[in-house]
Specification:
345 residues, mainly alpha, Dna Ligase, domain 1, 15 helices, 8% strand
Length: 345
């Protein structure tokens, strides 16, 4: 009898210890699962096309959002997260718990990205800049932008396709596809080229694409935006008279070197449809992706009689404008002398 009581006492004691451990473990796990994160700012988790849980765990660990990796894995398994992973960019904010995080990642409710691209010269620059901000391979986007059939689908050709991209900030999802991005840019392009801007282009005798081409030259030529209307007016005067544009930036584009400070005769002789010293009219496509300000400056050109311009001899980046070749020659000599004195070749 004494032995039975002793065994029963031990059993009760062991059971009590086990219950205590279970309760303690439950309390600990609960405190982990439902403990709100204290975050000074929103943290973002990125899940790419491979959808690997290990990548998620690594990001959570690096961002100090993983108080217990073991509990996270157990909870994720219980909530079937490994089979329900979705690509995207997810925002984890102050006050969320581990349970909230898994629910968010499972839901696919992404935080959009503010996609921005400005000051883009080439299609390669554009593809690279966009791919830095989205789950998008730059080569895949570049191939799409250089594909003639793809360009025609949106109403452009392979030389003018980049004019569909109006530099601005757009709210898009991080995992958007190339096709969805192009569709969005076409929608934004149509919205930008509203009735007012189309009427202005029509009054200039130009299409929106032609305005973009000219604006790209204007922006490369003028260092300061307040000169855009004056430079645009000059080029329009030359086009009206059937004169070649003779724009130095188009030569730099044809040569493939925008760093040229001095255009030499050998550069003027390069064979390229973009060389406006050898070809009349506009080049076949933009030589950069013009900004909204450059496009609007071109759509509202200054009315004047200028046909020539040359960089000022003070090397400020501004221009001397002239109505006659003789005036232009004097301005050009002063500029060339300044380059010689500064030993700029």
């Amino acid at each position: 009898m004494q032995k039975k009581k002793k065994k029963k006492s031990i059993l009760i004691w062991i059971t009590g210890i086990l219950l205590l451990v279970i309760v303690s473990t439950g309390i600990y796990a609960g405190s982990i699962l439902f403990r709100p994160f204290s975050l000074p700012e929103t943290v973002y988790i990125y899940i790419d096309g491979q959808k690997k849980q290990e990548d998620v765990v690594t990001q959570l660990r690096e961002k100090e959002l993983l108080p217990s990796e073991k509990i996270f894995r157990l909870l994720a398994e219980r909530m079937d997260y490994p089979n329900k992973m979705k690509t995207g960019r997810y925002a984890i904010s102050d006050g969320m718990t581990m349970v909230d995080v898994i629910r968010l990642l499972r839901s696919g409710k992404q935080a959009p990205v503010d996609l921005t691209f400005n000051n883009m010269r080439t299609v390669e620059n554009l593809a690279g800049r966009i791919s830095q901000q989205l789950m998008m391979d730059s080569l895949t986007l570049l191939n799409a932008l250089e594909n003639s059939a793809n360009a025609q689908k949106y109403g452009f050709n392979d030389k003018t396709f980049v004019s569909m991209f109006i530099p601005n900030t757009y709210e898009v999802y991080w995992d958007t596809s190339v096709e969805n991005l192009l569709n969005r840019m076409k929608k934004e392009y149509n919205a930008f080229w509203n009735e007012s801007r189309r009427d202005k282009a029509k009054n200039l005798g130009m299409t929106p694409v032609e305005v973009s081409i000219l604006a790209s030259i204007v922006e490369e030529e003028a260092t300061y935006a307040d000169e855009y209307p004056a430079v645009a007016g000059l080029y329009l005067n030359r086009l009206t008279k059937g004169m070649r544009l003779e724009a130095d930036p188009t030569v730099k584009f044809a040569v493939g070197d925008f760093s040229l400070r001095r255009i030499l005769y050998k550069h003027l002789e390069v064979e390229s449809p973009y060389n406006t010293y050898k070809n009349t009219g506009l080049p076949p496509g933009p030589i950069r992706i013009p900004s909204i300000r450059a496009i609007d400056g071109t759509l509202s050109p200054q009315k004047h009689d200028y046909l020539f311009m040359c960089a000022k001899e003070d090397l400020s980046g501004r221009h001397n404008f002239a109505t006659t070749l003789a005036q232009h020659a004097r301005n050009a000599r002063a500029y060339q002398q300044a380059l010689n004195e500064k030993r700029i070749f």
